[in-house]
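ok new one. same drill as before - structure tokens go in, u give me an amino acid for every spot. 375 of them this time. try not to just spam alanines like last time pls lmao
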């Protein structure tokens, strides 16, 4: 095992700066899984139905989540929408809401109310600057008539918009979420210190061939070329504080991932930290990374250090063991046996990982066919 030096090391619980916890039965199912993934702080996305556009809705949602996982810190966000005004920003700041999330119209799950043009929101961004709130960007351009935009270049096509927003609002803290391309990583590096980015748990593994052949690997933005995956891996462990952990864990009922137009999203929450460790190990095995590149300090910085600096969070003193993960015989659970598809089958050296859990989403109880090998 290339990363034997990490066996038994203790790290603070991770902060996951991009999660989808949904609502109703799905929320009740996935929210208690946060701690199982080595995480105790999450930045919650607001793309519910209807979207979270008011402070009252946001606080009510947070209360539901907190009741399901009282030992997790939930950082909340509003959905950028014409109903959001500078007054809303002030109210949100006073209520302890962390940020506002922008979805381009129609590019991903529940983005039907998303942004068509940013100009109408300039007064909102000015107030966010004054209130020191975070603007979270889903960084893709939607397809439009007369433009050669596809899922493969939608992120890169958005980068001029990122740079323009940063130029207009240089003190506004911006997070470009789920970077999937070398171009996006470079754009964030080129911006000033108020611009940062998240890297997911699954993009360090995936390329276009994976999601083109398997809907359970399909998400937005899509995974791209091997060169992009290499850039993601190297950035993940570079120690650059502009880049930190945000799984974009996005659960869906299995039937929506097997439909004619399958839903965008990869569910990774129960094994979040373990996937990062396994990605690094695979990076070493394939020669993308050198073993000396991977240190406890850099791993901790990615998982829980940089984001505490950017978002002014209080660092946790909890020291969970790092989960050493290896792929099982198949990446995916048999899709006709489960309701919510967990992306990777793993082993772990954790003394007890509650992964042989029962998923209850409909009235059925379905046991996950995962064999845990404790070492």
């Amino acid at each position: 095992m290339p990363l034997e030096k990490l066996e038994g090391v203790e790290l603070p619980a991770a902060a996951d700066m991009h999660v989808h916890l949904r609502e109703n039965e799905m929320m009740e199912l996935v929210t208690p899984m946060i701690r199982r993934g080595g995480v105790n702080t999450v930045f919650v996305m607001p793309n519910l139905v209807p979207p979270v556009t008011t402070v009252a809705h946001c606080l009510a949602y947070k209360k539901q989540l907190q009741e399901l996982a009282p030992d997790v810190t939930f950082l909340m966000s509003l959905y950028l929408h014409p109903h959001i005004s500078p007054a809303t920003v002030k109210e949100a700041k006073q209520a302890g809401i962390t940020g506002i999330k922008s979805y381009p119209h129609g590019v991903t799950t529940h983005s039907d109310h998303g942004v068509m043009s940013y100009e109408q929101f300039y007064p909102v961004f000015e107030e966010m600057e004054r209130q020191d709130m975070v603007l979270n960007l889903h960084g893709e351009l939607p397809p439009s008539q007369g433009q050669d935009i596809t899922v493969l270049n939608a992120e890169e096509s958005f980068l001029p918009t990122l740079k323009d927003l940063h130029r207009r609002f240089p003190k506004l803290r911006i997070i470009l979420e789920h970077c999937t391309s070398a171009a996006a990583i470079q754009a964030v590096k080129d911006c000033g210190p108020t611009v940062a980015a998240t890297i997911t748990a699954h993009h360090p593994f995936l390329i276009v061939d994976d999601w083109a052949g398997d809907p359970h690997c399909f998400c937005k933005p899509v995974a791209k070329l091997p060169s992009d995956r290499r850039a993601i891996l190297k950035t993940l462990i570079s120690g650059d504080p502009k880049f930190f952990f945000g799984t974009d864990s996005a659960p869906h009922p299995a039937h929506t991932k097997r439909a004619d137009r399958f839903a965008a999203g990869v569910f990774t929450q129960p094994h979040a930290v373990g996937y990062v460790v396994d990605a690094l190990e695979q990076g070493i095995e394939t020669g993308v990374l050198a073993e000396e590149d991977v240190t406890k300090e850099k791993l901790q910085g990615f998982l829980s250090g940089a984001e505490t600096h950017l978002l002014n969070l209080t660092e946790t003193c909890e020291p969970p063991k790092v989960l050493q993960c290896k792929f099982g015989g198949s990446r995916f659970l048999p899709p006709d046996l489960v309701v919510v598809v967990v992306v990777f089958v793993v082993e772990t050296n954790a003394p007890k990982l509650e992964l042989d859990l029962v998923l209850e989403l409909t009235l059925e109880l379905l046991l996950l066919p995962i064999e845990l090998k404790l070492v």
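Confidence is low (pLDDT under 50) at residues 320-375. and btw The longest helix spans residues 296-311.
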